[in-house]
Amino acid sequence: MTSTSPTDPGVPRLGDVVAVLAVKRLGEAKTRLAASRSSASDGLHRELVLAMMLDTMDALRRSGIDHTVVISPDDGVLAAAHGFGAASVRESAGHGVGVDRLNQAFADAAADARRRWPTVRTVMLVQADLPAATADSFRSVVTQARGMREAVLADRDGTGTTLLVRRSDISEPPHFGPDSAAAHREAGAVELDPEHLRWADLRTDVDTADDLDAALSLGVGHHTAAALGKRHPAPDHGPAMASEPMSVTKRFRPARDAS
Ligand SMILES: Nc1nc2c(ncn2[C@@H]2O[C@H](COP(=O)(O)OP(=O)(O)OP(=O)(O)O)[C@@H](O)[C@H]2O)c(=O)[nH]1
Ligand SMILES: C=C(OP(=O)(O)O)C(=O)O
């Protein structure tokens, strides 16, 4: 079963925008979150990582963005991305380690997007762990960044970056990693909403149990709700799925520690 999300036919499409997500091997992903949720099994943890990615992509699609690329070395991530209707790019081995590898992966996936969709004008590099993301916020961020060469949205504490909107002709790797908001500003990106008055949903990337609580208090999408064993996601995260939201979800029991 695929996991395509419904799109509202009334939402104009953002045909010149592509979203790019990078996800590492599921067995290595979100170690801080795994450590703080030690009651969740390995399977449930992987399930949650995938679910957060799918909710991020779901909100992107409902915002009007039809082109999404996911880059990962992990078969499970690539299969889930493909099942969702995104382009999946296998990350090549030997591109450095740590954040260098992440930044090169983003650059490689953006280059792939330019080849696939030559008319694309804007590339949005998006963290894949934004389960509270809403379509309205993605749409208004893209609108706000129009005309800018590069624009950065900082995370909840202001130090990290949850998304970077760039003109598609920029080929240099970005600067994700520790203090990436400052690094992106220093590289010339304009900070969107520097006073942090807007877009709490897009600023809430989930690295720890506290972040997950923050996302849950905003309301998470269907996939994350299902992965946590919650039956009813927040009402502003799109129409309910007609069928099980994610085939892989069905293989795991709901989290015992779901609140
Ligand atoms: N494709 C790819 N994605 C990466 C790589 N490193 C990090 N990412 C992804 O980039 C995003 C941001 O990374 P982090 O928020 O630090 O997530 P994480 O590394 O899974 O979490 P921790 O283990 O707790 O540090 C996550 O979606 C990661 O899966 C990489 O080398 N390749
Ligand atoms: C890689 C980043 O994310 P995190 O803080 O989630 O590790 C970043 O903010 O640049």
From TrEMBL:
Superkingdom of the source species: Bacteria
Source organism of this protein record: Gordonia sesuvii
Record-level Gene Ontology MF annotations: phospholactate guanylyltransferase activity
UniProt feature coiled coil, ranges: none
Pathway assigned in UniProt: Cofactor biosynthesis; coenzyme F420 biosynthesis
Family statement drawn from the similarity comment of this UniProt entry: Belongs to the CofC family.
Keyword terms, alphabetized: GTP-binding, Nucleotide-binding, Nucleotidyltransferase, Transferase
E.C. no: 2.7.7.105
Enzyme class, UniProt record, top EC level: transferase
Entries under PANTHER family matching the protein: 2-PHOSPHO-L-LACTATE GUANYLYLTRANSFERASE
Protein name (database record): Phosphoenolpyruvate guanylyltransferase
Gene encoding the protein: cofC
InterPro entries per record: CofC, Nucleotide-diphossugar_trans
Function: Guanylyltransferase that catalyzes the activation of phosphoenolpyruvate (PEP) as enolpyruvoyl-2-diphospho-5'-guanosine, via the condensation of PEP with GTP. It is involved in the biosynthesis of coenzyme F420, a hydride carrier cofactor.
Enzymatic reactions: phosphoenolpyruvate + GTP + H(+) = enolpyruvoyl-2-diphospho-5'-guanosine + diphosphate
Residues noted as binding phosphoenolpyruvate in the record, renumbered to the chain: 161, 177, 180
Stored Pfam families: CofC (PF01983)
Region of interest called Disordered, as start-end residue ranges on this chain: 228-259
